Amino acid sequence: MELRQLHAFVTLADSLSYREAATKLFITQPALTKQIKALEQSLGAPLFSRGRQGAQLTPFGKSLYQKAQALVIQANEFKQYAGNQARQVSGHIAIGYGLSSIRIASMLAAQLKKQYPSVTINLEDMTSAKHTEGLLTNRLQLGFLRQPIHPELKFITLLEENLVLVVNSQRYSVPELNQADYAHHLDKLSYIQITPECCPGFSRQIDKYLAAHDIVPNVIQYASDTQTLLALVATGMGVAIVQRSAIHIAPEGVDIIDLTGPHANWSVALCWNPKISHSIRDIFLNMLENQSDNYMAIP
User: Fold this and answer.
1) How many Å apart are CA 60 and CA 2, to the nearest integer?
2) Ranges for the HTH lysR-type domain (predicted)?
3) Residue 73 CA: distances (Å) to CA of 4, 6, 64, 149
């Protein structure tokens, strides 16, 4: 039994209309019906009967209404009290992220700031190696890292990422060539490579993919960051391999081709150091646990 189910029960009991109750709860009528049925199943008896005049409370439903109403009121009062307490929480947290996690990191930081406005949040873009070092030394309290993760860190897997080939849409007609065509001829195409020293972890991921597929690219240019690399691809200078999340910063004229096979995919996790205590970090993790369904679908 969940609190939202009790809230749905009380709201429907007050209006005796599925349409009106669903509107008040900001959900669809099927979603409301599902919640009521789940509550009835957990309680072991029907709460409502449906007739020509809409929903009607059963004797069992009538016997539970006042108690349920009191619980909902108490829950609302508790939520208001918790909100008042949250506004008194203050502190600082540093969170590391990379290109794959910039969207979810920003959304989670905004949610934390909304609930705890006195908390200072520092978002830092850095490599996986610096992430790990920062978490081990408490320079960072949270970090989004490519798996596998350092054994001293705990983590929650949040995202799945994969490699894509980016090409100039005018020079290369994507519908005519699939990823196998490009992969087999990558040694003949002009290839722009991310500078390994700037992104060592991601460069190793690409190297593993190329080695697994026996591909030796024809490197004609290096780029120190993904934005520069994408800009060069957009000019038609050559093709490149980036993570799929890079499409959010790609300029016009760039198409992507998903790559598959060994080392084309990896997981991104939110990591922390369990040996170091940090109250704001723990609040953040609790918030994530309660709302994880909202973030797992972020592309």
Assistant:
1) 18
2) 1-58
3) 12, 11, 14, 44
Element (H, E) at 24: helix 18-25
Predicted confidence at residue 295, as pLDDT, reads: 47
Domain boundaries 91-158+268-294, CATH class:
alpha beta
Backbone angles phi, psi at 105, to 5 degrees: -65, -40
Residues of the chain with CATH 1.10.10.10: 3-86
At the topology level, CATH places domain 3-86 in: Arc Repressor Mutant, subunit A (1.10.10)
Q: How far is CA 167 from CA 69, 210, 231, in A?
A: 60, 17, 11
| Chain center to CA of 95 | 15
Q: Name which CATH class applies to 161-266.
A: alpha beta
Q: Is the peptide bond before 274 cis (omega within 30 degrees of 0)?
A: no
Cα–Cα distance, 135 to 44 (Å, whole number): 49
Helix (H) or strand (E) holding 90: none
pLDDT score at 204: 92
Task: Give residue 299's pLDDT.
Answer: 42
pLDDT over threshold 70, residue 292: no
